[in-house]
UniProtKB/TrEMBL annotation, chain A:
Residues annotated as transmembrane: 12-36, 70-89, 96-113, 119-138, 150-175, 259-281
Keyword set, alphabetical order: Membrane, Transmembrane, Transmembrane helix, Transport
Origin species: Roseospira marina
Cellular component, GO annotation: plasma membrane
Name of the protein in question: Sugar ABC transporter permease
Keyword hit for Lyase: no
Keyword Glycosyltransferase: no
UniProtKB/TrEMBL annotation, chain B:
Residue ranges of every copy of the ABC transporter domain listed in the record: 3-233
Sorted UniProt keywords: ATP-binding, Cell membrane, Membrane, Nucleotide-binding, Transport
Statement: the UniProt record of this protein carries the keyword Cell membrane: yes
GO CC field: ATP-binding cassette (ABC) transporter complex, substrate-binding subunit-containing
Organism: Roseospira marina
Organism superkingdom: Bacteria
Pfam families: ABC_tran (PF00005), TOBE_2 (PF08402)
Family: Belongs to the ABC transporter superfamily.
SMART domains (UniProt xref): AAA
Protein name: ABC transporter ATP-binding protein
GO MF, any single term: ATP binding
């Protein structure tokens, strides 16, 4: 039996292979390369083995950044997902207001990240910003450049403002796809508003909400620009999330080996937690 | 307890969905609403259920006006054409849901759900979720949920339309048995004349938001008041032809003449619309008064154990496409000129406005 080998076929696959090689595989392998070697910046390399990985995993600085990252991500998920669903539930299902609501909702998503950071930086300034003035006027001592608590509050408010819309749009898409007949059936059964939400709307939104949780999880875990523009990770290290810490190590201190090891650990954490989320939310799906 | 619809109309955005309609629906037999998609069956049912408010008119149940009464407080069941079940509840919980809302005791719920599941052949599936069931089982689950609560008004909106042929026949046979010992008004909407005939009871033919005719199913089928009612209640569509009566003979537009069948002898001379159902037009002469009809065969198809032949009769302007439906398999080739036979004794005569002329 002879197999026909079509050499020309390679030509068709080649562009995508080159593309993937340059935008994913080669950079990733470069990072792997750095993570197991020591370099002093003069292009001489020494084998370091797993030393950087051990260093990073034992470093209190990494632990703190990771803890801040987890706190940030789970806080914004706990706010954005329920809030997004709640807003989607109040939006009209049909009529002239639908496009108005959708466009209004989509607006924050259209603003570049660094602009969002700049907007909130100025908005929250205690002396000239509207938010800062109002909070201080109400008697709160609020200064996000000095108080860690205020910085966290601003950071979370900013993320909620920027990204809840994404959850709203996804949840809304799930809601409008429910046929009227489901609502009629529930009405006839005498189901309460809560029962309709619990037994019809929520199960029917499950798939889009899984996507919303995954997107928001991954994006918020990788967040860099907004806290960087807001306080640069401060005051002190209080809002130094993983990505900000990573950039400090890699570009600030130019410790390429530890930074590379940290990148890989960071990447694996995102991958692992995404898998956990997905598995948890999709269990029972086909039972 | 009967359901009465009095002068009900429904207009949405200036468009009339239901023209003034009066209907009385009695318990004890199926009340069939027969009409094509868009005839207003669903709208009418939603008004009966209380899911929609009529623009004008009232709905009465057992002598009380229930027009404005919320659907939750009426004792109504509705089965949709789509299979509607709670996706993350098991079949047991789905069937039990209306009883749980009504706060029935646990033991009673278990008992009633199990009996209903046995009736619907769902017992082995009680622990599963709707997504794990076949289409027929999903619809049986939806029906079980509608029937378990002993509603006094049960609305079935094309419940079998989304099922495959075999299951449809099976469930259709089961339906009359399910309602046999119930004292409730059952309304059944369908687009299929055969389904109406099989279910019996009373049929109302609907066309473009109006009731064309109401009466015992057999009567509406055999003695349609109007051409519209006859067309709604005929599948394949009824064949029609313009005919002129002169003395004892009828003449068709292509010149075919035949002597008047006994029942039509008394009609005064003049122009009529002659209607005959496809199964009275056959490849071999049948019935009391067969008349030969030559036609060019356009299409033949097998439908169950019947042969359906579409053929063109007449020339030029006067050409009409007719349909013949005959039991058995008949070898007719497309493109061939065939001689078919219509039993004019089974024909119906309408005046030009479409009202049937009973001779």
């Amino acid at each position: 039996m002879t197999k026909t080998v079509n050499q020309k076929a390679w030509l068709f696959v080649l562009p995508v292979l080159i593309l993937v090689a340059f935008n994913a595989f080669i950079p990733l392998m470069t990072v792997v390369n750095y993570s197991v070697q020591e370099t002093f910046g003069d292009n001489t390399f020494f084998w370091a083995g797993l030393m950087w990985f051990e260093d990073v995993l034992h470093s209190p600085r990494f632990h703190d950044a990771l803890l801040r990252q987890l706190t940030f991500t789970f806080t914004i998920l706990a706010i954005e997902i329920p809030l997004g669903v709640a807003i989607a539930l109040t939006m009209p299902r049909r009529g002239v207001w639908v496009p108005v609501c959708l466009v209004t909702m989509a607006l924050p998503l259209l603003i570049p990240w660094n602009v969002v950071g700049a907007i909130w930086n100025i908005f929250a300034l205690p002396d000239i910003g509207l938010l800062g003035q109002v909070l201080n006027g109400l008697g709160f001592d609020y200064n996000f450049t000095r108080q860690p608590g205020a910085a966290w509050f601003t950071l979370i408010a900013m993320d909620v403002w920027h990204w809840t819309s994404l959850v709203v749009l996804l949840a809304y898409a799930g809601l409008v796809s429910i046929p009227d007949a489901f609502y009629q059936a529930a009405k006839i059964d005498g189901a309460s508003g809560w029962a309709i939400f619990r037994y019809i709307q929520l199960p029917k939104m499950k798939r889009v909400l899984t996507i919303a949780v995954l997107l928001r999880f991954m994006d918020s875990f990788n967040i860099y620009t907004e806290p960087f523009v807001l306080t640069g990770g401060g005051p002190g290290n209080s809002t130094t999330l993983l990505s900000i810490d990573l950039v400090k190590v890699a570009l600030g201190q130019f410790d390429l080996g530890p930074a590379a090891a940290m990148s890989l650990i960071y990447f694996l954490i995102v991958l692992l937690l995404s898998w956990v989320f997905y598995t948890l939310m999709m269990r029972n799906e086909d039972s | 307890m009967s359901l009465e619809v009095r002068g009900v109309t429904k207009r949405v955005d200036g468009e009339t969905h239901i023209h003034p309609t009066d209907l009385t629906l009695e318990p004890g037999a199926f009340n069939v609403l027969l009409g094509t998609t868009g005839a207003g069956k669903t709208t009418l049912m939603q008004i009966m259920a209380g899911l929609e408010r009529p623009t004008a008119g009232t709905v009465w149940f057992g002598g009380t006006d229930v027009t404005g009464v919320a659907v939750q407080t009426r004792n109504v069941s509705l089965v949709h054409q789509q299979f509607i079940n709670y996706p993350n509840l098991t079949v047991f919980e789905n069937i039990a849901s209306p009883l749980r809302v009504a706060r029935r005791p646990k033991a009673e719920i278990r008992d009633r759900v199990e009996r209903m599941a046995a009736l619907m052949k769902l017992t082995p599936m009680l622990g599963r979720r709707p997504a794990a069931l076949s289409g027929g089982q999903q619809q049986r689950c939806a029906m079980a949920r509608a029937l378990v609560k002993d509603a006094s008004l049960v609305l079935l909106d094309e419940p079998l339309a989304n099922l495959d042929f075999k299951l449809r026949e099976e469930l259709r046979d089961e339906l009359p048995r399910l309602f046999a010992d119930r004292d409730c008004v059952v309304v059944y909407a369908t687009t299929e004349p055969t389904e109406a005939l099989l279910l019996g009871g009373t049929t109302a033919t609907l066309f473009e938001g109006r009731v064309a005719q109401v009466g015992p199913t057999g009567t509406v089928y055999r003695q349609p008041d109007t051409l519209t009612s006859a067309q709604v209640f005929s599948e394949p569509p009824m064949n029609t032809a313009a005919v002129t009566k002169r003395g004892e003979t009828f003449e068709m537009s292509d010149g075919t003449t035949w002597t008047a069948p006994e029942a039509a002898r008394g009609l005064p001379d003049g122009a009529y619309v002659f209607g005959i159902r496809p199964h009275h037009v056959t490849p071999h002469p049948t019935g009391a008064h067969p008349v030969a009809l030559d036609g060019l065969v356009l299409l033949t198809e097998l439908s169950g154990s019947d042969t359906v032949v579409h053929f063109r009769h007449g020339e030029g302007e006067a050409a009409e496409t007719w349909v013949s439906q005959a039991h058995g398999i008949h070898a007719l080739r497309v493109g061939q000129v065939a001689r078919l036979h219509m039993d004019v004794a089974q024909g119906l005569f309408f005046d030009r406005a479409g009202a049937r002329i009973a001779a």
